[in-house]
């Protein structure tokens, strides 16, 4: 394993390069000695972090080493990887050099994988433990019996017998000959196990009847070709050397030294710009329409907080968009703080009102920043849309996809699947589940196209700005239009707005007309019902015509003036009040017609006087039924004044999506995080470490003393990281085993140390939790966000 002496031999340049490759060694609190640095780099968490940065061929070489017991002579390693040519051996050398540079492989007589890296593959290449692991604890009598079954005359001493058995089982030709002479059922069992399949347990292990020697499992166990995983069960495994022998001389472990090819072609900048601008503008319009619709009628959500499939289909139909567009729109709106999902519904937040007044480029900039930081992958899922759901590695994968597509710039990606394969080849372990990562990478590319981060298969200036960490994207966005303040009101009773209408224009047209088409040019249509709606909301004929004239390009069309006047003339001719409610009108013939109307029988209407009708239904039900039947009633207050009916715009609190970011309980918010020490530069830290003794006394703070006394599973380095997090109120990630023995990783914050336990805010559970220090088995630094 990595030691202080090994690190010192690297020298200043070598150690600096190592820390730049392994930044976990620079995390605060910074190590005070080379021994502590070695200890920190050797932890499983730090080792896995290093493996996540490596490409596929480098990981394949590491897995091959693990399959060979963690150490192998170079010719043996080359043979297993099928590297029989000079170029193949050079590729293996490059991978080994990368592993050495990351302190994952150490050299003595042969390349040797550090233990924490070897443990990353419980069954490397589908193989079990080395044969020695299953024999070292056997008694002399057991080994003597096994030797006789193998056709060996056993030596006298146990150590010599063990060497005899090991030599036999490590000899591929002898293993093949042994299996060739095995009973047919045992041979079939062994060939299946060698191919990586499951080994059936010994059926007679728990039985007191029958002879175990009669089973194929027992035959193989007696000769060391299968081994029990423990002495207390019937589960079996095949030693690695035996499996490799049975796979044959033609077997080679996977070794994909060449990156997948991605077909690219020259791009037309004008085409790219037009496609990106159109996509960005369309997403702004979709999010606006979505939030306006949710403001008028909040969207029902599932108990889990997401929007279900049925509601997605309904919304997509209402908004005239595709389901993938809507999924992405919901997600980015939630992560931008414009939409809140909670209390059984989704509704716009107060922040939407400010965003709605931005220019389109500023609106899109807000959405892009939210998407870039979002841990959700809405297009990679097929179920409900849950913006708070976290897909591991999504943020890193999104950046990797855009970065790979940018090489070279201004090149068109023809096949997103090939691009995904390249991204995963570069870092197979970096993006969550390796089985789903390729599909998730394709989904990221599709999301980028829908947002205008790419255009016609080319990364745009906005994509390059996101990669570069730019916060203000407005300057690099293409022409996605400007806010429109006027509409063309036409003689066919339609209103047309080209571009994004401002808040005032949109509110007026939504009130006095119905949306008809959505897109670059948006259309509303006026009708008697929509004009009546505006009058119900408090407009008079005169005020409505004046408001329409203010937003019109040119004169108001005569048909629109006639429509408003005609509806206004009839508007209020019937007045409704509460009895359950009653109707009154000076037009007795009209009241007689209403009483006789069969469509209104459910209202229970009866005539109280020639000018008054009483209804058994509530006022709002009566108004709705009369309007559906073609009448134009007006609600009336008790004093006879008309009641103005206004649409209610719903707003929700500006809370983040579920699990979008950690919260802390309000009662403990007074404990503000202290200023943490800045992460040191690698070169500065290296000089300090090389100047210090390999073993340096660590200052013992009260928190560190308490942690070391109770958290007995932690190394000194891990204890320092935890104590530092407690003292500076910084987040930290712990591996914790609960009372039932179930392990989990928890990022905790706002930590208080009390009598051998931690009281902390758990980001996983979004609640305060107690953690027993004795049950914490590992610690690593966490991001503050």
UniProtKB/TrEMBL annotation:
Residues 721-780 form the WYL domain. Residues 489-609 form the Helicase XPB/Ssl2 N-terminal domain. It holds the Pfam family WYL. Residues 660-672 have a biased composition (Basic residues). InterPro entries: WYL_dom (IPR026881), XPB/Ssl2_N (IPR032830). Residues 650-681 are annotated as: Disordered. This is Uncharacterized protein. It comes from Phytohabitans flavus.
